[in-house]
Write a structure and sequence with these properties.
This protein is an all-alpha fold. It is about 60% helix and about 0% strand.
Length: about 140
């Protein structure tokens, strides 16, 4: 009886392993086909920094410096969509410096950038039930 149980167990295990190998092989083939299609299509990202031009930003002191610092890491649209107070912009710059290795901007350069951001991207009026809270902005 023990031999039958052991043989039955091994048979079940061998069949389960065979199913797993077939499934993984199908997954690998499917992934390879999808990757080849993406390469063949020359996949174009939804956004590239070239889509943004400094001339599209509101004019004012600090526009060039702000655009240059922000677009070194991400699109300016991300910045323009935020809308924060000068203090929140200041906290955000500090957070990006500490968390993401952004150059530590200090002195008149920082003041110039903060003034531009606070002037041209102030807090937005709350919508309906209290407005949108940016999950990425420092709380």
């Amino acid at each position: 009886m023990a031999a039958t149980l052991c043989t039955g167990w091994l048979s079940w295990w061998a069949e389960a392993m065979a199913r797993a190998v077939r499934w993984l092989a199908a997954l690998a083939v499917g992934t390879s086909i999808m990757a080849a299609q993406v390469r063949a299509q020359g996949r174009v990202p939804a956004f590239t920094p070239k889509d943004e031009r400094i001339e599209d930003l509101p004019e004012g002191p600090g526009r060039d410096e702000t655009f240059g610092m922000c677009t070194a890491c991400h699109g300016y649209k991300l910045v323009a969509d935020q809308g924060m107070t000068r203090d929140k912009w200041d906290e955000t710059l500090t957070w990006m410096t500490e968390r993401h290795g952004m150059p530590d901007i200090q002195g008149t350069d920082r003041d110039l950038i903060l003034d531009y951001l606070a002037t041209h991207h102030p807090p937005k009026a709350p919508a309906g039930a209290g407005g949108f809270r940016n999950p990425f902005a420092p709380q």
